[in-house]
């Protein structure tokens, strides 16, 4: 089952979880909002848990201060943030890594953070196929021009699956350009960016720095803070620190003599130019 809203879209952002697209691209979304360019966020791993929680999931729910069906609360946080940024909200109800189980044994696949960040998407080929099929359908329905997918920095298994499924889904779509965004907060580590690019053999790396205004940066901060359960002040060591993300945006802005920026990557100059023309229109 997929939760989807309707209308025509120019740019689709693929989000592994119910905050990733806003953390990474919220300023760009607000810029597009100001320019009346329709956008959509498709969140892949937005499903509710089934059966007993793993110890890892239970611990994370406790840190978030959320009950058993934590994703239901997180979907509402995400909905509010995307309303603020005027992005269409589509949630594919696949289970994120902390809830997934082996179909044969019923055992949880990931019992530690180390396993999640050291995961191999080749071990979940059936899920990957289902993700790509769902995305192909959603992208075709959106009739979009550009799909922005996570670069995969940080190595989170759900980010890697989203990356690969996004590439596979777009391969069959004519006239759809594929752009990569920097996964925040993982991309705060420069080495994580390089490792992701090397892992996916992105040899042609065309940098796209999107200049943001103070208004865009404030909108991004406001949107991030709507994910209350995910903030460091709520979730402690596993929480988001908005100030670090905003500081990173300000640092990127120095390259373009702007208040702030967000960075994307393309594999060829045509895609880079096409994306930049949409952003600046």
What do you see in this structure?
The protein has one domain: LmbE-like (Rossmann fold). 46% of the residues lie in helices and 15% in strands. It has eleven helices and eight strands. The protein has helices spanning 20-34, 55-64, 70-84, 113-117, 125-142, 157-171, 190-199, 214-225, 232-235, 242-253, 269-280, and strands spanning 2-3, 11-15, 39-43, 87-92, 146-150, 177-181, 206-212, 260-266. An eight-stranded mixed sheet has the order 1-4-3-2-5-6-8-7, sandwiched between helices. The protein starts with a strand and ends with a helix.
Explain the layout of strands and helices.
Layout: E1 2-3, E2 11-15, H1 20-34, E3 39-43, H2 55-64, H3 70-84, E4 87-92, H4 113-117, H5 125-142, E5 146-150, H6 157-171, E6 177-181, H7 190-199, E7 206-212, H8 214-225, H9 232-235, H10 242-253, E8 260-266, H11 269-280
Parallel strand pairs: 2-3, 2-5, 3-4, 5-6
Antiparallel strand pairs: 1-4, 6-8, 7-8
Poorly predicted runs are 1-7
Terminal Cα span:
35 Å
CATH class: Alpha Beta
CATH architectural group: 3-Layer(aba) Sandwich
Query: What's the CATH topology name?
Result: Rossmann fold
* Strand order in the sheet with the most strands: 1-4-3-2-5-6-8-7
The helix-strand sequence is EEHEHHEHHEHEHEHHHEH
Name the average pLDDT: 92
The overall number of domains is: 1
How much strand?
5-15%
Secondary-structure-derived class: alpha/beta
Number of helices: 11
Cα gyration radius (Å): 18 Å
Q: Could you give a short account of the major beta sheet? A: 8 strands, mixed
**Shape annotation:** globular
């Amino acid at each position: 089952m997929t939760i989807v809203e309707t209308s025509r879209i120019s740019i689709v952002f693929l989000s592994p979880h119910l905050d990733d697209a806003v953390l990474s691209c919220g300023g760009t979304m607000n810029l597009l909002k100001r320019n009346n360019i329709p956008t959509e966020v498709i969140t892949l791993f937005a499903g509710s848990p089934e059966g007993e929680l793993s110890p890892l999931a239970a611990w994370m729910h406790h840190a978030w201060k959320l009950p058993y069906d934590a994703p239901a609360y997180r979907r509402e946080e995400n909905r509010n943030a995307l309303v603020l940024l005027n992005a269409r909200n589509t949630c594919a109800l696949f289970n994120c890594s902390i809830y997934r189980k082996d179909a044969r044994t019923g055992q949880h696949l990931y019992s530690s953070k180390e396993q999640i960040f050291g995961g191999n998407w080749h071990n979940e080929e059936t899920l990957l196929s289902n993700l790509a099929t769902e995305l192909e359908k959603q992208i075709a329905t959106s009739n979009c021009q550009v799909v922005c997918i996570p670069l995969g920095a940080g190595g989170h298994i759900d980010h890697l699956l989203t990356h690969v499924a996004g590439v596979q889904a777009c391969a069959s779509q004519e006239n759809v350009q594929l752009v990569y965004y920097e996964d925040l907060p993982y991309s705060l580590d420069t080495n994580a960016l390089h490792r992701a690019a090397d892992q996916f053999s992105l040899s042609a790396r065309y940098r796209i720095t999107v200049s943001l205004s103070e208004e865009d940066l404030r909108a991004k901060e406001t949107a991030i803070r709507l994910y209350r359960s995910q903030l460091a002040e709520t979730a402690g060591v596993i929480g988001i620190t908005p100030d670090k993300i905003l500081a990173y945006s300000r640092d990127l802005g120095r390259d373009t003599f702007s208040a702030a920026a967000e960075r994307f990557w393309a594999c060829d100059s045509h895609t880079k130019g096409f994306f930049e023309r949409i952003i600046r229109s």
